[in-house]
Amino acid sequence: MKAFKIGQRGLYEGLQVSWTLGKIIFPVTILVTILQYTPVLPWIIDLLAPAMGLIGLPGEAAMPLVLGNVLNIYAAIGAIVSFDFTVKEVFMMAMMLSFSHALLIESSVASRVGVGWFMITAIRLGLALISGFVVHLFWKGGENLAQYGFIKSVNLELNSWTEIFLHGFKTATIASLQLAMIVIPLMIIVQFFRELGWLQVLSNWFSPFTSFLGMKKNTSLTLVAGLTIGLAFGAGVMIQAVREDNVEKKDMILALIFLVTCHAVVEDTVIFIPLGIPVWPLLLIRFVTAVILTVTVAFIWNRIENYSRRGIKHEY
Fold first, then answer.
1. What distance in Å separates the CA atoms of residue 126 and residue 123, rounded to the nearest whole number?
2. Model-level pTM?
């Protein structure tokens, strides 16, 4: 009976969070799906193509980078395999896209936690540009053409605005249902963890790592969720953590800084394997960058807080 009631509460939380996130994902998915069939994306791609040379990429690289940021990594990979890129160029694009992809959806969902969309987007785009430029400067190899294996580019032919809208509606519906299918069971599991005391055990296990990053141990579940299932789906755990686990805003901002840099580490790494690039460096660079960035922000934040406290005491 107790387990049934816990499950009921978890189901309610899952439905509530799914509704909260679905209100963002559904309209944004329709928008970006329709956008790819308008002149807007080609215009943006043509505008950015000349700038690709500044980070060592050919003009054609603008297409996968724009599609990856506006749509998702899968759309970017579909564009990559349409061109002959070198291993180095594919690795650079994979690195940039691992930091910055699906900006409209993921950043909008993450902003529901209380961190501004502009801040999240600026961090992701900044890291993408810096990482691409650094790889261009320091990697001297990878000049052979990338081998894409069995991946093929797929283009869907739609002949009217009605077909485009219906395709967008279908895509948005599937995305929202997929979200609910992941979030609802996750919220039920989280509810069991919380009420049976397992959440405290998990927090204790990860407390050395969260403390190293400058966060309290009750942020552990948020980090685990974001690292494993991604930023958009992990946002459900974040929203509930802020509401029920008394996670402070400072800790949540630090957690988001870490997760916008390094999230869904399995999926976002494995997806690039068929492109014929080294993926372990991709994962390592993301993780190390996330740790360094989060620790640095936490250190500066703590110094500012300590300075403010000393100033108040001095004035008194």
1. 5
2. 0.77
> Percentage of residues in the chain with pLDDT exceeding 90?
21
- Residue 52 lies in domain: 2-147+160-305
Give the whole-angstrom CA distance, residue 289 versus residue 297. 12
Total residues belonging to the chain:
316
| 155 is a domain residue | no
314: in domain: no
CA–centroid distance for 39 within its chain: 27
The pLDDT value given to residue 57: 94
Query: What confidence tens digit (pLDDT) does each residue in 42-85 have?
Result: 888 888 888 899 899 999 899 889 988 987 887 888 788 878 89
Say how many domains are in the chain.
1
In a domain, 315, yes or no: no
Residue 78 lies in a domain: yes
